[in-house]
Amino acid sequence: MRARTLLLPALLTLAGTAGAVTVKLRPQGEELTKAVQAALAALSTPDFPVTLDTSGGPILTLGGAAPFSPDVAARSFGVGTERRIEFNPRGPLNLQDAVRAELTREWKLTDWTTASARARLSGADLNGDGKIDLTDLALLMNNYGKSTSIGDLDGNGKVDDADLKLFSAQYKL
Questions:
Q1: Are residues 163 and 99 part of one domain?
Q2: What is the number of domains present in the chain?
Q3: Distance linking the first and last C-alpha atoms of the chain
C-alpha cells in the first residue's frame, strides 16, 4: 500500500496509511523536539502510531522575533510559503501543554486524545469536521471511480475499492 499525503487547512502535511500517520513538523531545538515527540507519543497506540517527520511542514520555534504578550502561549502565522508556530518561553503554559494546545488547534482536534487524532488524522474524515460519518462516506462515494484526492485514502491517484475498505476500517456506527 502506498503512503498518502494530506494537506489540512492549516498547511499541516500528514502522510501514512489508515492505521498510522506521520506528522510533518520542523521543531527547532532539542527542548521543543522533545516536547513535540512527547505530545505525539501521548496520541500513539500500537495500532495507530503517530510519528514525527522533520523533513517538512510548519516550523516550530521557542520564542520569536517579536515580543510576546505574557498571556499568550503560542502564535502561528505564514511567512511567504512557510508556516511558523512560535511558543512563548515565558507564557502562561509550560511548553508541553502549549505544544498540545497549539497542535490541537492547528489540527482541529476536539481534544488531545487518540480517538480524536484517529478521526481527524486518519484521512477518513473527508470533510474535516472531526468525525468520520455518513457525510464522509457520501463524499467518498461521490468521488468513487474518479481520479481525485478527495477520498483517495491509499494515495494511488483514484478513489476505488481499496479506499472504501480503508474508510470502512475507520467508520464506526
A1: no
A2: 2
A3: 26
113 in the same domain as 56: yes
Residue 55 is assigned to a structural domain of this protein: yes
Task: Tell me, yes or no, whether 12 and 79 share the same domain.
Answer: yes
Radius of gyration of the chain from its Cα atoms, rounded to whole angstroms: 17
Helices 95-107 and 30-43: angle between axes, nearest 10 degrees: 60
SS3 of residue 73 by DSSP: coil
C-alpha cell read off for 133: 460519518
**Each residue of 52-104: pLDDT tens digit?**
999 999 999 999 889 999 999 999 999 888 999 999 999 999 999 999 999 99
What's the pLDDT score for residue 173?
A: 64
User: What domain range is 39 assigned to?
Assistant: 4-121
Residues 6+ apart with CB under 8 A from 108: 8, 9, 10, 120, 128, 130
Amino acid identity for residue 117 in this structure: A
Residues forming beta bridges with residue 87, ordered by sequence position: 62, 74
Q: Is the pTM of this model over 0.85?
A: no
- 100/113 Cα distance (integer angstroms): 10
Q: Are residues 83 and 165 in the same domain?
A: no
